[in-house]
Structures are given as C-alpha cells and as structure tokens.
Specification:
The complex is a heterodimer of chains A (about 300) and B (about 190). Chain A is an alpha/beta fold and about 300 residues long. Chain A has helices at about 15-35, 60-70, 90-100, 115-120, 140-150, 170-180, 210-215, 240-245, 250-255, 275-280, 285-305; strands at about 50-55, 75-80, 105-110, 125-130, 160-165, 185-190, 205, 220, 260. Chain B is of the alpha/beta class. In chain B, helix 2 (about 20-40) crosses helix 3 (about 55-65). The chains are: A alpha/beta (about 300), B alpha/beta (about 190). The interface of A and B includes residues 29, 305 and 309 of A.
C-alpha cells in the first residue's frame, strides 16, 4: 500500500483507513523536510495548482499555498470577492476557464455542500476539498487526527469530544468520520439547538453536560461558534453559551486527568475557550497549524503522484 | 512463451558475486581507504543513501569504530524520494523513507554510501537533496558494487568494493546479515 485509493480528496467519507495512514506516514517525512535549513523539495515542479476560494479563509489558504510552494508547484490564486463570479459566471465555467490554462490540481473552498463532488464529475483535474459549506473539511480532520497521533502516539482507542456548533461545522463532520475510521470513540457536546437531528446515526453520542464530557475524554476539540452561518438565534446570548459550553482554566484544572485541548481556529477568545486555556501547555492549537502544513504537503504529493505524465 | 508448468524458479538463475568472506575483505579495504583520505573523521560525515545504503553505512561505521578505533564517526541517512526524476513516470509509486541528519554538514566532507551504483540517478538526486542541508566542501561516493557500462549520467564512485559487468535485464542483489540473514551479493538473471 503506497498509493491512495482515490484521485481526489473530496471528503473523509470517500477514503479508507489505509489512505489516512499513508497520508500520516508521508506527512512524517514532510515534517522532517520543513525543519531543514532549505524547506523545499522539487517533487511537484511540473504541476500547476489553482487555489479557488469562493469563501473567506486565512489559515487553510495560507497553509495550502505554503505547502504547494514547499513542493515547488506553480500556483494561481483566485478569490471570489474580486472575480467574474460576481458577474454571474457559473462554477463549471469559471473552473474550465482556469483549467484551459493547463492546471493539474484544484484546491477549492466553496459555500455550497457537494461543490467538490460536482466539480470532480465535470472537469479533468485532481480536486482537493478545502471546505464545502457545512459538509466536509477533510484536510482539517486529517491534521487534527495527525496532531492527536503526534501527541498521544495513536488515535485508536482514544476518546474525543467535539464541543460546540456541530450543526454548521464541516470540521465536526470530517473529524467524526476520520476519528471513527482510525478507531477512536467520539462524543459531541453543545446546545441542543446546534446538534443536527439524528446525530446518533453517525455513531456518536450526545452529551449535553460539558463537565461530564470533559471528564470522559482524552481530547477536547473546541469548535468555533459560527455566527456568520446562523440565520436565526440558536442560543439566547454569547454569554450564556460561554457559561455552559466555554472552557476556562478552572474547569480544565479541576478535571480528574490531563486532557488535550484542540481548536481549528480562528478562536473567539473568551467564547469557546479563554485565553489562558488557549495559551496553556495542554492546548496544541499551534501544533495543529504546523502539522497542517505537513499533512497538506502529503495530500498534494500523494494525489499528484496519481496524475500520470503525458509527454506526447 | 513457456508453458505454465515451467515454474518461475526454473526461469531465474542466481550467481554469487561475493560471498560472506569476500564482503568482509571488501569492507575492511573500503574502511582503510576511507581512513587514508579522512584521518580521524573530524571533518567528515558519512551519509547512507536510503533505503539500502544505510545497511552498508552502518557496517562501515561499526568497523571504523570497533576495529580501527576511530571515535565519533558521524553517520546520517538521506532519503532522496522527493528529489527523484522518475516521479509520476515510474509504474510503481515511489515510497519515501526516513531522513536522519542531526548534525551540520556545512563545510564538512561528505561521503555518500550506497550498496549498488547502477544508472547514477539516485546519486544525482542525493546531490540535489544534500544541498538543502548546507554546503559541504566536497562530496565523495562509496559503493559496494559498481555496475560498469550502465550509467545514464556522468557519475563515478571514489571507492568501490567490486566492479561487475551486468546487462540491463540482470539484477544485482546485496544481502546483509542484519536484514536478510546472510552476507552475500547475487547476480540474478532471467533465463530466456
């Protein structure tokens, strides 16, 4: 097993446990590369990658861009805000125009769930989903699991609680798939209004009490409250959310055991977690960012290796 | 085509190029040649080229330290997968290995160590890869088996255990006691 079973990374649900392990093993090698004096390898020097961001992003976009540069790929960037999308061009037209410039891979973030899958059926390039609406964000889940493996040695057998806005979160869904494929047990915690209906059908259990959930787990993944996706009020006030589901240092210090705190960023300091938790040694938030670079390099490298050269 | 009852084993022939004693002698000679050129190894680092060069490199280091009493020989492992020129061209996917160079190579003499020198492409990629760790004063190449007349690039070894003539369809296999259970070098060819 040294090749991915897929030609695109559209979501964790489409890949196997072996694929995830291969990505992790390759990421280990790239983690060593990014600590060298010259942090760049020439593997993808004949590959052109388009970064299409139809939705705002800071760290995912920077991380992908840096990963592509570290692999020596040529890149073109696109953001919807300053493009012809505003003039009414369709997704397929936009992407086909970009592809006629001979682009081999597309990294795409889009507000509509399934945009990546749709695109993969219409265009001839390798697609990486960098977040599609409230559906999936596969590279975030991969780097979260990689960070758990990095800190605890293995993901299998670990207990992970995902706290917060599960309803609007693509990070939560991808994380649930990835953690379960790797053999972890997952609980979700948060206001009942922010839980998807039938969330148990994903094989997770719902725990409404934060303290109970934290006492159970090895790892707590504190999600951001996504105000921009909330068209109605899901909880009475931010203050009430913080009182019930916010993690502060007192709660953390009073737990029976030492847990790991994760956050996919950007942090609303003082809402999901307080500053002293975010900056404590139990938080691995900055490790997640560093591991994200190695994991994205691994995904790009492994998918690129499946694009066969056509020299004729 | 051969009928099915002719087994695969029957179609392969294996010739011993070096036995355990001959490997032992060759390793001692290579170690002595290294000492001639590098004295106490204070300005020299040895780099095993992954995946197979590491076995030879570790053997040489243990010989230099235990038999020739040279202290502190620095040994690193270099994987060149991400620098290979057959990425997306070879039928089999390339598999990366560990790189472990936890010392500075800037202004040092580097000796690349690999078991078989064939086309020279691995060494070409190793020359590119080592540049990412710094600028050595010079780079030498040591190989146990040098396959003559098969180079694709102008690369020659500075130290060689044995020079062999092997044609395209033939394969040279180096076995190590630690890994395969015996010290031997075989020439494997398909009989057609």
């Amino acid at each position: 097993m040294s090749e991915l079973s897929v030609n695109h990374l559209l979501g964790i649900k489409y890949i196997t446990e072996e694929d995830i392990q291969l990505i992790f093993e390759t990421a280990d090698h790239f983690k060593e590369v990014i600590h060298r004096p010259i942090k760049k390898v020439p593997s993808l020097r004949d590959i052109t990658i388009a970064n299409l961001f139809f939705e705002n992003s800071t760290r995912t976009r920077l991380s992908f861009e840096l990963a592509e540069k570290r692999l020596s790929a040529d890149i073109v960037n696109f953001s919807a805000g300053s493009s012809s999308v505003k003039k009414g061009e369709s997704l397929v037209d936009t992407v086909n125009n970009i592809l006629s410039m001979k682009v081999d891979m597309v990294v795409m973030r889009h507000p509509n769930p399934g945009a990546g899958v749709f695109l993969s059926k219409h265009i001839n390039a390798s697609i990486i989903n960098a977040g599609d609406g409230a559906h999936e964000h596969p590279t975030q889940a991969l780097l979260d699991c990689y960070s758990i493996r990095d800190r605890l040695g293995d993901v299998a057998g670990k207990k992970v609680v995902i706290v917060g806005d599960i309803l609007h979160s693509r990070v939560a869904l991808s994380n649930i798939f990835a953690l379960q494929k790797l053999g972890a047990t997952v609980k979700v915690c948060g206001p009942k209004t922010l839980m998807p209906r039938h969330v148990e059908s994903l094989g997770v259990t719902f725990e409404p009490n934060l303290i109970k959930a934290l006492n159970w787990c090895d790892v707590a993944n504190m999600l951001r409250v996504q105000n921009e996706r909330m068209d109605i009020s899901y909880f009475p006030s931010t203050r009430e959310y913080t009182q019930q589901f916010g993690l502060n240092k007192t709660i953390l210090d009073n737990l029976d055991k030492e847990i790991i705190v994760m956050h996919p960023g950007p942090i609303n300091r003082g809402v999901e977690i307080t500053s002293d938790v975010a900056d404590s040694k139990q938080a691995i938030i900055l490790d997640q960012v560093q591991n994200g670079l190695a994991v994205r390099m691994a995904v790009l490298y492994l998918l690129a290796s499946k694009i066969k050269r056509n020299d004729n | 085509m051969y009928p099915e009852y002719v087994s695969e084993h029957f179609l392969m022939s294996q010739k011993t190029l070096l036995n355990a004693t001959e490997i032992h002698v060759a390793l001692h000679r290579l170690a002595c040649q290294l000492i001639e050129n590098h004295n106490d190894f204070s300005q020299t680092v040895l780099i095993g080229i992954q995946p197979r060069g590491g076995f030879l490199a570790k053997r040489l280091v243990s010989l230099l330290q235990n038999h020739y009493k040279i202290k502190d020989v620095q040994l690193g492992l270099l994987d060149t997968t991400f620098y290979r020129d057959d990425f997306r061209r070879s039928k089999k996917p390339l598999e990366a290995n560990k790189t472990a160079i936890d010392f500075v190579i800037e202004d040092k003499k580097v000796v690349f160590i690999d078991d078989v020198l064939y086309t020279g492409r691995s060494i070409r990629s190793a020359l590119t890869a080592i540049g990412d760790f710094g600028r050595p004063t010079e780079i030498e190449l040591l190989t146990l088996i040098d396959r003559r007349f098969s180079r694709h690039l102008p690369i020659q070894p500075d130290y060689r255990g044995r020079q062999v003539d092997a044609i395209g369809g033939e394969k040279v296999k180096v076995c190590w006691h630690e890994h395969e259970g015996e010290d031997a070098v075989y020439l494997i060819k398909e009989q057609l």
